[in-house]
Amino acid sequence: MNLVQDHPAAPxxxxxxxxxxxxxxxxxxxxxxxxxxxxxxxxxDVPSGQVVGLIGPNGAGKTTLLDAVxxxxxxSRGRIxxxxxxxxxxxxxxLSRHGVRRTFxxxxxxxxxxxxxNVLVPLEWRTRGRGLLGDVLGLxxxxxxxxxxxxxxxxxIELCGLSEVRDVNAATLPIGQLRLLEFARAIVDSxxxxxxxxxxxxxxxxxTELLSEVLLGLVQRHExxxxxxxxxxxxxxxLVDRVVCLVQGAVLADGTPAEIRRNPEVIAAYLGS
Length: 273
Ligand SMILES: Nc1ncnc2c1ncn2[C@@H]1O[C@H](COP(=O)(O)OP(=O)(O)O)[C@@H](O)[C@H]1O
Ligand SMILES: [Mg+2]
Hints:
The protein is α/β, with parallel strands linked by helices. The protein is built from ten helices and ten strands. The protein has a domain of 156 residues: Rossmann fold (3-Layer(aba) Sandwich), CATH 3.40.50.300. The site of magnesium ion (MG) has 3 residues, from α1.
């Protein structure tokens, strides 16, 4: 089953407002927590199919920026455009149904559900409230209808190397597999814009390689746009087209991996010598 591009487009249609070609456009996005400015007037245009690495020291505002783009936090100022439509005030659930999916720095898997049930949850909305999870947990006559979605779930589970633990409760998984499960949940509904918050943290070397392969495969096959927050600089640099370095909430540098590696300001603020 191909769910790619099967998300309702943001109202206004692709590129409707502002004539933007980019999937994502941030204009002067600012997020404040009381007196702290966590994200400071960030302007960013991300074209379709681009993989952007977002780096910077702890507290730079990387997670908060992903929170704003995914609708978990409304910016204090500025605008967020998706396919040219203003989505600044849209909720996280609205954005996820329109193809914006993410992972969290700390995994959000449901421990009492199996791996397979966990990966089904993000597809739940496609059953138009009939309750996909209910179908899988019981109700045999519903299973036919959900067959295609289940096929997609199993495909993603296999892609993420989780087939052997498919029917295991998530709570019993080691951290590496939990992180891969989190990733599986983020990609199962074939997002257009994928936001990953430190996806390799807790992964072993082999798991990191697997993640990198899966991500590259997705990007090459589809018009998937990715923003990747990551501390593992080798992982970032090997995977992305472009790197944005955030310091104290603001964009310090924006360029190719090679440019960023030799940027003296980035070296001083983050990379070290
Ligand atoms: N919920 C919150 N309430 C208050 N301050 C916050 C909150 N979340 C983040 N911050 C602050 O915002 C800044 C950016 O944090 P964060 O986005 O988590 O950075 P990063 O992901 O780059 O490490 C930090 O100074 C952090 O302390
Ligand atoms: Mg963070």
